[in-house]
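Follow-up to my post from last week.
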Amino acid sequence: MPTIKDVARLAGVSTATVSRVLNGEKVKEENRMRVEEAVKQLNYSTNTLARALKTNKTMTVGVIVPDLSNVFFTTIAKGIEKALHPYGYSIMVCDSDESVEGEREKIAFLKDKFVDGIIIIPAGDQQPGLKRLQDDGIPIVLVDRLIEDIQADAVLVDNTNGAYDAVEHLIVNGHRRIGLISGPRHIFVGKERLIGYERAYTDYQLSIDPEIVKYGDLHIESGYKLMNELLDLPSPPTAIFAANYYMSIGAIMAANERHINIPEELSFIGFDDIELTKVIKPPLTVVVQPMDKMGQAAAELIYKRMTGDDSGPFPAILRLKTQLIKRESVKKVNYPCL
Amino acid sequence: MPTIKDVARLAGVSTATVSRVLNGEKVKEENRMRVEEAVKQLNYSTNTLARALKTNKTMTVGVIVPDLSNVFFTTIAKGIEKALHPYGYSIMVCDSDESVEGEREKIAFLKDKFVDGIIIIPAGDQQPGLKRLQDDGIPIVLVDRLIEDIQADAVLVDNTNGAYDAVEHLIVNGHRRIGLISGPRHIFVGKERLIGYERAYTDYQLSIDPEIVKYGDLHIESGYKLMNELLDLPSPPTAIFAANYYMSIGAIMAANERHINIPEELSFIGFDDIELTKVIKPPLTVVVQPMDKMGQAAAELIYKRMTGDDSGPFPAILRLKTQLIKRESVKKVNYPCL
DNA sequence: TTGTAAGCGTTATCAT
DNA sequence: ATGATAACGCTTACAA
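User reply:
Got it. Predicted complex:
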């Protein structure tokens, strides 16, 4: 591999001049030409390791996701990569294996690699490793959920109003008994979406039957199981809202299996618009999170910090809106009480 | 951040000695202790950049997948990571965006980062960038499919026999009219699985009706569409074999939508055992690829090459077996001709 | 066994 | 505007 010295020699200038050309500084036109020529001729490219050693910049940002085989997370990662690329930054994607410990490991790993910043979709609601990262002056952006005791920029989704919109839509369509397939009670997004559900009920002066509020673990199996539980109730809901993609899929599977006709016999609103929701019948009414935008926003935020732009408030907490896409899984019903 | 010099000073030895301790070379016991003590006290950790600059080893391998939001690929990536971790290697996952050009970019990127090896799930069947990589002496391992004009170690799946087993199982259960939802004709795995189908027909002295062999693009929508086409035929198949995970899902969706009872009215064999196949009813009989093992095998192979072990043949082509998992989506039928 | 010092490929300071 | 050179933090002959 040719080095900057080879280029300098061939171009008949010093390495300093070559470096200047390479970094777009002002150089006599003639010299610039000769250097560029030499670069091409030798097929030279900068040794990023040496540059990083000198500049303390790797032009790389680390991205930690809880599970590499979860489309929701990887889609966000793709969004980050797409947004960072134009700035010349690349990403290193890591899997924390849904554990705080795994997360700690990956943080250490990325620090070892001298990434210029870390975007993390937290696996739990604490992470001691992050504070140390901040002490080292490495910018951090949280995505999807907050972390206790940590002040950091974050890109969140307005989960509460997202859930609210769904439940409200159901209520407006005459439903009074709306089953909720929720995430874990102690988890950030689970909590927020639950609040949206409750708030809608409150605003319409309806009371909640705790029996039709179920808590799952965000995985398919869990949606499947809870849907069955709801349907087995002596007085089952007339509508279901599943507050996460995988649980939506599981729930739909359960309904299909029981030959329940949606929306004729049961109205349904799901979460997110990935893969499956494209083919499920009937076309599902869903609350969608702007995954691309989440990735993009996180990228912009960290870019700002990495380039030393400390304008604006710290921490900057972005709340992106969800969108309720109305399709064909909700039926209008008439309740005697209306 | 403390450097090796700080450690040397504190321990009262030279940097060379510190380096030796750090790299597990032989050092007087007392010195070792003092160095270790100093390391702990300063919370020192090696600057991997500096080390890599010197040694030309980053202890990182690049992994390029066609699509980060495809579970099949990311599961393999997870397998690679798990297997490489014990050796002290980490991975850098990249998304080629299912294009040869994107792949070329990522290869250049990884070369820039001086990864010690590259494991790639090719997006197409050529990639000029790889030959250059080999010329630079960077080990390459291909996963899932081969690349034209390139001699490289590879981990493949025995697609042909996998498909064969599925079709044979259907035949043995009395089916004579087996619809195939296949991948693109020009794509490696598509081709191989098609051959398996044909071979089974040949071996049982049956003839193939080209009308019930459909070619899709491996995505859900495609499975959905082709299933509908097959079912719309004047004389539809009595069984279907879908030769890829996403197309299997799409196909099942289509069947569900038409309220076709599997296996009573239609037998079905799908591909791979991820996410959905866990909840679909009835439990699906599937051909499963050993994704974990694929990742692991690729990791072992590249590790061997990275550590200069050139024993064994080159290129080493591993063919992993699939497994036919029999569940409840195939019904025995009786054909008059039997 | 240990220390000295050169060198990995850059960038950046300081003269010129 | 350019060049010489020290420095980034480490490894590794070579010498002691």
